[in-house]
């Protein structure tokens, strides 16, 4: 027995190693990539749309026989709360098996998280947050952004609204970095374009009752009420404007450009304007491809405004890993050199802060319960009119 | 400031105050009978509003589109289901902890509030998004100068007032009310007098929760928007209002509710700095009031400090 065991044991080991070895050689290595967005809470509709879109990018890549790796998507919920966001950002960044990240719709969360990605050398691309400081407020080479910033957005918005003939504004904004940023840039460009700001209210991001602010606004009787913030507050302000009999035009920012804004306000949504980076899905170079694939994948939720950006950001990360291998530093370097990279949102070119320089801004208006591109709406051709015109 | 505008601010403030008062009445009722603080109260309000909203959707689905019938349906379902939920919470969470330190009840109900909130967010269809609550009341409005008064606001104010008067009559003029007062005053003696202690506690929790459900529906009808987080701040404010007024005293709760609303409105209107600080201002004054009168403005006759 003793002799037999001595001779068979190494043989068995060899056989097992050989069997395992061939098994590994046949399968692709698994590489982890991550997605972070608000999957619960008031703005979760946008977050879930983004997550689905990022997942779609991973699914399509895994179905591609030419792909060198098998990708596994790790998703985390930031709840749009900076404190939660910082925790999960650390969790994702500290997991060395995660090579790249597509993250953040909420600017306030992104601002807290970028330092962490830099510390852990995790290359990432933002898919929805629009605060300029996310990319321009630091020199971190890990941080990139495929969507435009609120600087471009408000520049276009201020010019667009003054061109319509509006003269006076009351601004209401939430007091997060996001709302304050909108307030700052819109005020700046509005003054440049000759608009006048009658009052400016900062409100907490969870306020329910706006009757006091709106009653004050009513007294000032502005042409437009500008709201810098996200959907839940936007819905409340629009509804309460009606309660107080305020007839001013309601102007939002990219943060309210969601289907849930229309669900929340119903008939009052009609004629509300908002601005969004990038072109509408059907006008994007790869828009049709994206929406066909999104439908085919069977997601029940809408991709919402930023889905195509999440999809493009994830694709960019996957392209990078295919090219330079699953290595954080190499991927960071790869992303730093991106110029004219094809994506469904158009060519992506990063400047030296990792900001995509393509910044087409599209104005939208709600017509019959749908967000319609301004140029295609009945408001543009004069059939319908915005409030007070 | 012209009179119309002042009137507008007063109506806004009254509306807020009515809602806060209705929530505060619940806190004070619970504290009265059991000396406990039920922190899930705001979330019970939210669940009640969603129950009412579901009823509206259900009635719409079976083809009933008469606004009055819908309103009655919404109110009946919201109030009845929350009265039941309140009694269940009392029976299975609050009463078993009766001899434990009050802090335990506070913690358990605080956690229950989170469970209710998260349950609506996760399990109600599309529950994480704000929902559009229907306008079931007439929306005619009268405008005098810069003063705009809507019929629905008036109806809601009158409705809230009727509920408060109803609770007052119930507590002070009925046998049930007498039993509630007896239990509040002295549990042991009340038991000796043949009062079914457990039943009275369940009924009181049912009553307080029903009032909260009414406040929730009122909130929905007024703002035309509901969301899973609406109960959180309302709960904290209602609790503060009950404390300023004097826990255990219904009039104190009502007074506290209106004081808090007045402070918030004042904070947004009259303070020179941005309205971002109106809650800071209101809560700071609450802290000062509590420091000045630790047992509340209208204290219970036999007061216990919390």
TrEMBL record, chain A:
Domain called Leucine-binding protein: residue spans: 30-362
Pfam families, A to Z: Peripla_BP_6
Domain of life: Bacteria
One GO BP annotation of this record: amino acid transport
Keywords: Amino-acid transport, Signal, Transport
Signal peptide segment: 1-27
Keyword Electron transport: no
Family listed: Belongs to the leucine-binding protein family.
PANTHER family to which the protein is assigned, alphabetical: AMINO ACID BINDING PROTEIN, LEU/ILE/VAL-BINDING ABC TRANSPORTER SUBUNIT
The protein's name in its UniProt record: Amino acid/amide ABC transporter substrate-binding protein (HAAT family)
Automatic annotation (TrEMBL), chain B:
Keyword Ligase applies: no
Any Pfam family hit: BPD_transp_2
Keyword Transmembrane helix: yes
Segments crossing the lipid bilayer: 6-32, 44-64, 70-94, 106-124, 153-171, 200-222, 228-247, 254-274, 280-299
Record localization: Cell inner membrane
InterPro entries cross-referenced by the UniProt entry: ABC_transp_permease, BCAA_transport_permease
Record-given protein name: Amino acid/amide ABC transporter membrane protein 1 (HAAT family)
Membrane disposition: Multi-pass membrane protein
Family: Belongs to the binding-protein-dependent transport system permease family. LivHM subfamily.
Keyword terms: Amino-acid transport, Cell inner membrane, Cell membrane, Membrane, Transmembrane, Transmembrane helix, Transport
Any one annotated GO CC term: plasma membrane
PANTHER family in the cross-refs: BRANCHED-CHAIN AMINO ACID TRANSPORT SYSTEM PERMEASE PROTEIN LIVH, HIGH-AFFINITY BRANCHED-CHAIN AMINO ACID TRANSPORT SYSTEM PERMEASE PROTEIN LIVH
GO BP term (any one): L-alanine transport
GO molecular function: L-isoleucine transmembrane transporter activity; L-leucine transmembrane transporter activity; L-phenylalanine transmembrane transporter activity; L-valine transmembrane transporter activity
């Amino acid at each position: 027995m003793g002799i037999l065991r001595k001779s068979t044991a190494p043989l068995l080991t060899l056989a097992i190693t050989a069997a395992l070895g061939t098994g590994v050689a046949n399968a692709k290595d698994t590489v982890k990539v991550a997605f972070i967005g608000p999957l619960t809470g008031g703005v979760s509709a946008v977050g879930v749309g983004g997550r689905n879109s990022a997942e779609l990018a991973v699914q399509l890549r895994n179905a591609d026989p030419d792909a060198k790796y098998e990708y596994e998507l790790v998703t985390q919920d930031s709840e749009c709360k900076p404190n939660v966001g910082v925790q999960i950002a650390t969790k994702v960044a500290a997991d060395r098996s995660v090579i790249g990240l597509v993250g953040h719709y909420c600017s306030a969360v992104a601002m807290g998280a970028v330092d962490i990605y830099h510390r852990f050398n995790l290359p990432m691309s933002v898919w929805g947050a629009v605060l300029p400081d996310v990319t321009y407020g630091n020199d971190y080479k890990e941080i990139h952004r495929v969507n435009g910033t609120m600087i471009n957005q408000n520049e276009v918005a201020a010019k667009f609204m003054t061109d319509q003939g509006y003269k006076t504004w009351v601004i209401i904004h939430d007091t997060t970095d996001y709302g304050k940023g909108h307030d700052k840039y819109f005020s700046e460009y509005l003054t440049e374009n000759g608009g006048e700001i009658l009052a400016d209210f900062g409100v907490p991001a969870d306020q329910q009752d706006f009757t006091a602010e709106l009653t004050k606004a009513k007294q000032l009787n502005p042409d437009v009420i500008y709201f810098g913030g996200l959907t839940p507050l936007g819905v409340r302000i629009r509804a309460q404007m009606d309660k107080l009999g305020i007839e001013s035009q309601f102007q939002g920012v990219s943060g309210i450009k969601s289907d849930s804004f229309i669900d929340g306000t119903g008939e009052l949504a009609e004629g509300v304007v908002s601005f969004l980076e990038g072109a509408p899905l059907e006008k994007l170079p790869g828009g049709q491809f994206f929406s066909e694939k999104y439908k085919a994948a069977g997601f029940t939720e809408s991709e919402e405004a930023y889905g195509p950006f999440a999809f493009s950001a994830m694709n960019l990360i996957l392209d990078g890993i295919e090219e330079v291998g699953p290595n954080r530093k190499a991927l960071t370097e790869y992303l730093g050199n991106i110029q004219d990279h094809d994506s469904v949102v158009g060519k992506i070119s990063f400047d030296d802060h990792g900001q995509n320089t393509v910044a087409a801004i599209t104005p939208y208006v709600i017509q019959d319960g749908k967000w319609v591109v301004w140029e295609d709406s009945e408001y543009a051709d004069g059939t319908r009119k915005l409030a007070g015109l | 400031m012209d009179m119309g505008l002042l009137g507008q601010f007063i109506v806004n403030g009254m509306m807020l105050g009515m809602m806060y008062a209705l929530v505060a009445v619940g806190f004070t009722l619970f504290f009265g009978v059991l000396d406990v603080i039920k922190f899930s109260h705001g979330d019970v309000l939210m669940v009640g509003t969603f129950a009412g909203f579901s009823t509206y959707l259900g009635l719409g689905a079976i083809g009933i589109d008469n606004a009055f019938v819908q309103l009655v349906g919404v109110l009946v379902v919201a109030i009845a289901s929350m009265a039941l939920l309140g009694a269940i919470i009392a029976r299975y969470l609050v009463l078993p902890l009766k001899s434990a330190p009050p802090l335990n009840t506070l913690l358990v109900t605080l956690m229950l509030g989170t469970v209710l909130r998260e349950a609506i967010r996760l399990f109600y269809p599309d529950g994480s998004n704000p929902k559009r609550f229907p306008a079931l009341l007439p929306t005619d409005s009268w405008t005098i100068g810069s003063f705009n008064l809507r019929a629905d606001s008036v109806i809601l104010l009158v409705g809230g007032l009727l509920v408060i008067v109803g609770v007052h009559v119930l507590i002070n003029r009925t046998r049930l009310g007498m039993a509630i007062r007896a239990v509040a005053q002295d549990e042991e003696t009340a038991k000796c007098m043949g009062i079914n202690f457990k039943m009275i506690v369940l009924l009181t929790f049912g009553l307080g929760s029903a009032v909260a459900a009414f406040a929730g529906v009122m909130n929905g009808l007024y703002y035309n928007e509901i969301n899973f987080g609406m109960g959180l701040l309302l709960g904290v404010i209602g609790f503060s209002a009950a404390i300023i007024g004097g826990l255990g005293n219904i009039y104190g709760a009502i007074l506290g509710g209106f004081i808090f609303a007045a402070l918030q409105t004042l904070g947004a209107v009259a303070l020179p700095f941005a309205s971002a600080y109106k809650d800071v201002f209101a809560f700071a004054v609450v802290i000062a009031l509590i420091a000045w009168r630790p047992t509340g403005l209208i204290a219970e006759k036999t007061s216990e400090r919390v």
